[in-house]
Design brief:
With about 280 residues, this protein is an alpha/beta fold. It has a 6-stranded mixed β-sheet, covered by helices on one side. Strands 3-4-5 form a 3-stranded antiparallel β-sheet. Helix 1 packs parallel to helix 3. It is globular and about 55 Å long. The N and C termini lie far apart (about 45 Å).
Length: about 280
């Protein structure tokens, strides 16, 4: 938990990206504070969230670059319970003038979005959707965003090799890498969109299963993963990637996913119900 030094590292990467002509900089989830709510000093650090958001806005304006500053863990008061405080993990899109154009709060930790709608953000780079980490596991999140016109989905993430649990590790120590690389490629194809995935990376751990996974990449339909410096790496680094959005348009012309969804004969106009907790069957 060293938000000040972590911010300085992020600021250096952003400046480097801008100097190389990048129009967008994306950071990983929890990049300032990690997620350690049991630590006595964690809540106090999260109370500083507004100052870091303002710093990122200033950086965006200074370098004329859009920024998604990973996620920032915010300490917020419940609207109806003034005495109760809550930690909220939030992704922001900041434009190149330093203005916050939109935000995406993570739902209850490690759950899907339930019935809160995902909303598309209109940006200088086109219509963008923001998701966080485990949202990747839910095709419905992507469908909601592309149904509203999103062409680019950005996913700040903190995902490690141990997230598959002991059973998964016993079967395949690289199970989570398989999950991520497969899901990212599939989401780009099945939604005819660009997927920008930025995951935490760092030094190796004494316990391989606890090691940061990295694999930050841009994935396009037809093309697959881009980002030579990071897409196959678990170490901290930066890739500057040129995204040809015409590839997304060509994929849509070929597969017609968005066209099918907008058609009168689209078969899947439904929302999943929750399981009742007794027999594991969903209620629709």
């Amino acid at each position: 938990m060293h938000p000040s030094s972590n911010f300085q590292t992020a600021a250096q990467y952003i400046a480097r990206a801008a100097s190389q002509g990048a129009q967008l900089a994306v950071l990983p989830e929890y990049h300032l504070t990690n997620w350690v709510p049991e630590d006595p000093g964690f809540v106090e650090l999260c109370a500083q969230w507004t100052s870091y958001l303002e710093k990122y806005c200033a950086l965006a304006k200074k370098h004329k670059i859009c920024i998604v500053p990973g996620t920032i863990v915010e300490l917020c008061r419940e609207e109806e319970k003034e005495e109760e405080e809550k930690l909220v993990n939030v992704a922001y899109f900041i434009d190149d003038e330093g203005e916050v154009l939109g935000r995406h709060p993570e739902r209850d930790h490690l759950t899907s979005s339930t019935h809160d709608p995902h909303t598309v953000i209109q940006t200088p780079l086109g219509p963008v959707g923001l998701l966080i980490c485990w949202d990747l596991a839910f095709p419905e999140a992507f469908r909601e965003l592309i149904a509203q016109g999103a062409k680019m989905i950005i996913i700040p993430t903190f995902w490690t090799l141990s997230d598959c649990g002991d059973a998964g590790l016993a079967l395949n120590p690289m199970a989570e890498k398989l999950f991520l690389t497969s899901a990212l490629t599939l989401r780009a194809f099945e939604n005819t969109c660009a997927v920008i995935f930025v995951n935490a990376a760092g030094p190796p751990s004494d316990t391989p299963s606890k090691h940061y996974m990295g694999l930050s990449r841009v994935t396009l339909p037809f093309v697959g993963p881009l980002g030579d410096a990071t897409k196959d790496s678990d170490r901290e680094g930066m890739s500057v990637v040129e995204i040809d959005m015409e590839v997304v348009e060509e994929a849509e012309r070929n597969y017609g996913v968005r066209g099918d969804m907008a058609g009168r004969n689209w078969h899947y106009e439904y929302r999943h119900g929750r399981t009742d907790g007794k027999d594991g069957k969903g209620k629709l």
